[in-house]
Structure formats: structure tokens, C-alpha cells
Amino acid sequence: MPDPAKHDPALPAADLPPSPVVPTIALTGDGKRHGHLRLPYSRDDSAWGSVMIPVSVIANGPGPTALLIGGNHGDEYEGPVALWDLARSLTPDQITGRVILLPALNQPAFATAGRTSPIDRGNLNRSFPGHPAGTVTQKIADFVTRALLPEADIVLDIHSGGRTLDFLPFAAAHELPDPAHQARCVAAMRAFGAPFSMVMREIDAVGMLDTTAEAMGKTFVTTELGGGGTVTAASAGIASRGIRGLLAHAGILPAPRPDPGPAPSRPLSMADDRATHVAPASGLCQPLRDLGERVAEGEPLALIHPADRLGAEPVTVRAQMPGLLAGRHFPGLVKLGDFLAVIATEL
Prior knowledge:
Layout: E1 22-23, E2 31-40, E3 50-60, E4 65-69, H1 78-89, E5 97-102, H2 107-111, H3 136-148, E6 154-157, E7 165-167, E8 170-174, H4 179-192, E9 196-200, H5 209-215, E10 219-224, H6 233-250, E11 266-269, E12 276-278, E13 283-287, E14 294-295, E15 300-305, E16 315-318, E17 323-329, E18 333-334, E19 339-346
Parallel strand pairs: 4-5, 4-6, 6-10, 8-9, 9-11
Antiparallel strand pairs: 1-2, 2-3, 3-5, 7-17, 8-10, 11-19, 12-19, 13-15, 13-18, 14-17, 15-16, 17-19
Helix pairs in contact: 1-6, 4-6
């Protein structure tokens, strides 16, 4: 049997076992339906149990399909809050085409407020394209890869920093080898209308939903809308407005009426690998700059004090490049190798 953690996304579906995931509602056809993706999961307290992943489908006639995802990581809440609200409020007569909403895709992680699944410790956003005979997390990724992504014209995966990171609120598109494909994603990113828009470089893109969707040629947008394992009125509002802006861009919602609206999104870029800063030591982190502040190359960003003794000199972490502090480690304690900061270039 192939390695359950891996399969070639180009492999014909006939060469893989069928997915064990069964939708409890029809994913095609007009109207508005709420249900679950049911994934059988036998466990100590429920021998014939299932993981039940909430899903809504809202459709009205021919048109594009948008796949809207939250809860890829279970401790990030802007996506779930905005999509739960959209599932309640959006009606078929308001749209053209179809919207598929998955506000808590990694339902086991979401239910326990964790980044990864408590069942198999799987990080869903490092498990794509998944496998139908793999772990629970790999089975969820496989269903999205084979059943949902091929149906989608535009994909939005809403993230924030979770419990360990904090970010300026930005929508993001990735640097892609095909300029035309990248241009489509950048245009959709701008339509989301977050306060900041980032052309992003991932430090670890293997196994991501992003990478799988982009390899299929999909218009893909992701976000980082705050962090700290919570949601604010401001960050939830950014997510809700952004979703509607993206749906209007896709032609699913009518174009919004002209109004002053929020300030234009500020374009950012992760210019090169120097943008990402990793903790060179473990200890108590003392930030010296806050999110949104401009820093010069060589300027101190943080001090890392040894957490087990007093009187010792801290390690000084300096900016590897000039720019805007766009993301940071959130908890007070940091470990060697943890993500510490990201500096973005203003375009």
C-alpha cells in the first residue's frame, strides 16, 4: 500500500480507494442546505462513531463555485465566526453560482481549541493531499483534495496566528511560477480588502492546502487576521467584509455599492528569506517593537532572557532587513527554533 501520508495529486482517482467521508447533504443543486461531512471513526467511547464536520451549501443556478474554509487549525477563530454568520445570513437569491462553507474543517482540533487534531496529532495544513486509508486528518485532507477542490473556482482559507502567533491583519497570495496564475490570486487577495495585503513566502509549504489548490490552478487566497487564540470584533469584521468582497470579485455576489469603505489595503511583500526570524535561544521574550512599527536593518527586535537564572545578559535578536513588523511570537516564553518575527517590505 502507498504511504498513507502521501499521494500524487495527479494520480487518477480510480487508483485510490474511495473516500470514507460521506456528506449528509447534497453538494450540488440549488437551494440552501446545512449538514455535515461524516467521517467514520471507531473509538473507545463510540465503537461505530463518526467525526462530524459542519458544512453548508448555498447555490443558485449556473455560475462559479467558491470554497470557503475556516478552522483548518482549530485555535484560529476569525474564519469560524465569519463563516458561521455567513451560513446563517446568506440566501440563494442573493448569489449566482455556489458557495460551499466549511467553518471548522479540522473539527477535532476546533472542538478542543488546538492547532492539531487530538485524535492523531495531525496538522491538517501539513497533511495534503492526504490519503483515504490514512489517519483521520489525512482522510479529511483527501476528501477536500479529491471531492471539493476540483469543484471550486476560487478558494479562501482563513487563518490567524492561533495561540502562539500574532499578525497584522492581512490577506495573502503566494509567489507562483506562472505569472498569470499569480496575478489572478493577487487580484482576489486585493478584493478581500484586508488592511494589509501580503505577497507571501512560506517557510514550510509541503503538505499545505495552499500548495495543493495552487497546483490545481485554483485562484487561492489565505489570510492571517490577528492571533493569540482569540477573535476580536475588528478581526471578525475584517473576515466578514473580506469574504463578501471576494465573493463579489468572483461574480457570486453583486458588486457592492460605491461608498468610501475602509482605507485601501496596504501592499506588503516577504521580499526574501531574511523576512522570517527564528529564536536563537530559549527563554523569556521581551519585545522591543510592536506590530506595525517600522524597523531598520540591525535594529533590536527583542531580548531573550534566560528563564532559569537572574543577572545574565539576554540574547538580542536584531532585524535582518528593514521593513514593517508584520508578525510575532505571542506567548511570553519562547523556545530555540520558534518563529519569532516576520518583517514585511512595504510596496
